[in-house]
Each structure stands twice: as C-alpha cells, then as structure tokens.
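Sequence, structure tokens quoted for completeness.
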Amino acid sequence: MDEIKRLLNIILRECRKITDFLPVAVFLSLVMTLTGSLISSILLRLPFLNNLLHSLVYSESMYIFMNNYALFLGIWIIILLTVLVFPGNHPMFKAIGYNRRGNNLKGYLVGLLLGFGTNAFCVLMSSLTGDIKLSYYGFDFVVLAAFAVVVFIQSGAEELADRFYLYQKLRRRYRHPIVAILCNSIVFALLHTGNPGFTVVAGLQIFFVSLIFSLMVYYYNNLWGAMAFHAAWNYTQNIIFGLPNSGIVSEYSIFTLEAASARNGFFYNVRFGVEGSIGATLLLAILSAVIIYKNWKKPECNDVWAQSEEKARQKSRTIKDVLFTEEENNDTAKTENT
C-alpha cells in the first residue's frame, strides 16, 4: 500500500481534484461545449442579435454560415462562469489574464502572424504547383470584419475548452506536463473526426497544430497567441482564400476556388483543404519541433497550480506562526502571573 501511495505521489499532484481525472475532465469539457452551443442557440434567436447578423450578410445561406461560427459564443460564457463559480478553479484566470511574457499585444500579434503565415504558405505552394486555382471575388470590409469577429469567437472557444480548461485541469492533477500537452491535443484531433473529408493525415495535421497551441501555453504563457494563431489559420483559408476549413467551405471569401480544377497535392486535399495535406502536416510538425528544440531546457513559463500550492503553504505557515506566538504569549503570561 505504501508503494502504491509513493507511486501515486510521483505521478499525481497534491492539489488534484477528482474532476481533473482525465476521463472526467474530458467529459466535463465536452458537456460545457455542448451546453455552450445550446446557450448560443438561445441567445442568437434574440431579435437584436438575429437582426444584427442578418444585416451584415447578403443571403440566408451566408447568415447560416456566420451563425455557425457565432454558435460558439455560449462556450465562452459557460467556461468562464464555471471557472468563476468554483473557487478551486480561480488560479486558471492567471493563465488567461494579461501578462508580460505572452498574453499581451505582442504575443497576440505573433500568433496572428504564425497563423496567417503558415496557412498562406500552404496555399501559395498549392497554387504554384497548380493544385488549386483562385480567382478574385470581392472585398467587403463590413462582411470581412464581421467574419473576423465570429471566427475569433469560434477559434477562441475551442482554445478555451482545450488549451485553457482541459489543459489546466490535467495540469493540476498530473505532475508531468506532457500529460496535459499531449492529451488535450489528441482530444482536439479526435473531435474533428466527424468533419467532412476527414483522413488520417488531416488528423495528424490537427494534432500538430494543437500541439503548437499547447506549447505556446506551456513555454510562453501565451493563450492569447494560441487563440490568434487558431483564428488566423481558419480565417486565412476559409474567408480570405475560400478554401475548405476542416472540410467546410465558406459562403463568402475574398478569393474563390475553381473547385472543378482542384486536385490532391502535397499541400492540398480536395475534400479537407490544406489541413488534409502532407505538406501542411510536415510544416506544422517542423514548427512544433523548432519550438521544443528552442525551449528544451527551459521550465514551464507559468505553472498556476504550483503558485497556488506555494501560496497555500505560505498562508498555512503564517497561521501556524500566529498560533504559536499566541500560545507562547499565553504561556509567558501564565508564568508571570504565577
């Protein structure tokens, strides 16, 4: 029995909760995602929001497509409320709040550049090799701005569910960070298996991009950058170039794809887009390897649970010191009275 306890203490942290157990944490994350979608479906039926979305688009089909992105708004609400309501989760806010290391304007812009740059590179290579042909459709600032907002809502919600809630829950339970880093990336990839045109290569690509997001949180404390990377990646291929985003094609984009002439290539998959290509998978695998190599011997940037434990220990020591001082004073007083 003592050996089992010793082994568990090596694997698990003292501050762990039953809700941090891997299957339970994944289940709770999925429940909140589904609950958030339900909340969004109710909110988006409110006349104000419904009319607002309709006023930004040209057609009912475009409204439905934009609405599908906006449906992720409720996930923001339910996750942030869950963290706020339960005091044990409060240290998580340190992972999403502003900080000088990653969660700042610079970190956000780095994420945007990485997301746009990696995706645009894949699109450029696909175009140069003749696998896709793009034609200019049009530029509407209002529509593009509206899609920028809803795409960020969708991408940010997925990051909240995986790189914020699930990552931090696993990080609180398991001592080794690889559990939180790998498990949330695997879960994220598995959640995309139902997308149109999903393949094993597409799954690997989604895993590697998710791994990059996790590494941004672990090494740079940059959840904002992960959100920006995710949003820029989706926006670039879907709204700028009109390509499938995880198999789904946008109803509006600056450029449109000549679908009839598209073909599978090293950087493009006809059904899943650049995400389903070997080239994109290798590119993101290399980027994740570079991040790991560059930071190999560096510690975790912001272990919110270690900070929380240390704060609790300091508080405990302070209380003990106060009690000990009071007891010592009482003993002294008794001696003097005697």
